[in-house]
Amino acid sequence: MPDNNAVPDNNAVPVNGAVLTADVVVVGFGAAGACAALEAAAVQEGGRVIVIDRFGGGGATALSGGVVYAGGGTPQQEAAGVSDSPEAMLAYLRSEAGDAVPEATLKEFCEGSVAMLAWLEGHGVPFEGSLCPYKTSYPTNRHYLYYSGSEMSRADIAEPAPRGHRAKGRGTSGKLLYARLAAACAASPRITVVAQTAAKELITDESGKVTGIQCLSLRDAPVWARAAHAIAHRLSKKPHLYMPKVGRVLHRPVAAIERRYARPLTIAAGRGVILAAGGFAANRAMMREHAPQARGALPLATAGDDGGGIGLGTRAGGATALLDRVSVWRFLTPPPALTGGVLVDKHGAKICDQTLYGAAIGAEIVRRGGRAWLLADSATIRQARGQVRGTTLWFQQIQARYLLSRAGKVTAPTLEAVAAKAGVDGAGLLATAGAVTGYQPPFSLIDCSVRPSLFFPAPVLTLGGLVVDQETGQVLREDGDAITGLYAAGRTAVGICSGSYVSGLSIADCVFSGRRAGRHAAGA
Length: 524
Description:
Elements: E1 18-27, H1 31-43, E2 49-52, H2 59-62, E3 67-69, H3 75-79, H4 86-97, H5 103-111, H6 113-122, E4 145-146, E5 164-166, H7 174-187, E6 191-194, E7 197-204, E8 210-217, H8 223-242, H9 244-261, E9 263-275, H10 284-290, E10 298-299, H11 308-315, E11 320-321, E12 326-328, E13 342-344, H12 358-367, E14 373-377, H13 378-391, H14 394-403, E15 409-412, H15 415-422, H16 426-433, E16 443-447, E17 459-462, E18 465-466, E19 474-476, E20 482-488, H17 505-522
Parallel strand pairs: 1-2, 1-9, 2-6, 9-20, 10-17
Antiparallel strand pairs: 3-5, 4-5, 7-8, 8-9, 11-18, 12-17, 13-14, 14-16, 15-16, 19-20
Helix pairs in contact: 1-7, 1-17, 4-5, 8-9, 15-16
């Protein structure tokens, strides 16, 4: 079991104070928490579900692309003329998930994929079958179905099919996906959301059963303090995502208000507590301990992704696994013409197939020490420049223009000269390029290394967490016994995407595992 000393306990545990009661308490109000609450409310008859969130809800979901990995013959796939089956989906995901979850869990996920998407649509999340015709990290506002993983590169494993279902909303549509789930929760008379409330410690009885949670809450703070807390957090969210150091500075008033005005709140849970508080990419100590290989990558996280949910579970006796599994992204597209280049390491050797999903590419780059360059000839660069405007959203366009500029690449009339400029082994590059036909000078090497960069960051997402029973979502102890009354979902738990990540698989797992935990906790 990993050293849990790196998991924050936030010290102060409230005593006394106000008391609320519920059948099920959900910690965290992102996709996993919202889905857990909706499912728990649907299972219960007259029961009450309380959802708490340190801020106002949304988590990393609201800042995401809003992509749900689904297949097996969804209406959107059929509308696009795509043929898919649960068997083909299972065969592909088996190669990605590895042994992170049992085969039975992966099969259940694939066979229930069409129904899962219908469930989301039933709660107001819109999808559409407009298929993106080219390789991309994220489609523009013209397309809402795309190949979001490495399906095309692994056609020998299973018949490829596009399974990235992007919620239909302009820009990055995670905010729309979350808003619809939050609205569905607000419409349920059995769900109460208590915002600006931070979970601090689980309450257990003598047998170890979890019976509630102790919190610090701003619900009784002055109106101005609650408003200032909400505004300060909102102003820090985007900077925290793109410029973490700036985001942490902007977030300091949030913590100051909590220290001054938060008061103890105890919530008793008659049936169970569900931990859905995100991962730990924003916790620098945990990242250094468990994922030092991700140094130089940009945490894809909010301030709430501090490992707090994992810490609650471990202090109650829960085991953790796969905390070293992180997903470092290095997307080479858009523009799609860049897939015609060759990705090489410092020795000039080819790293991998550049049409692989960005996380697979990132993993290979990290494995080779974090340095990588994309070798492209003049025709490829020219074609890529012509594609920038039509294949990118604003954030992708900034990245593409940077990569194709002098700041992002070096150019020279010969392979030997461009290798010297970039610091790549010339002999190795010549040997690699010798296998490519039709390359035209001048040649460019685009720096694709995993390193801090404002214009070309390498995002990192944590994938491991609390070990759970894959049939119920209950948190397990080191000996395999379940902790009665405690469940975990989303990135707080080990799940379907903990082995390997492709776009949409984390949100899909949040829906799958959140609903599972909510269903079983409510029926406990």
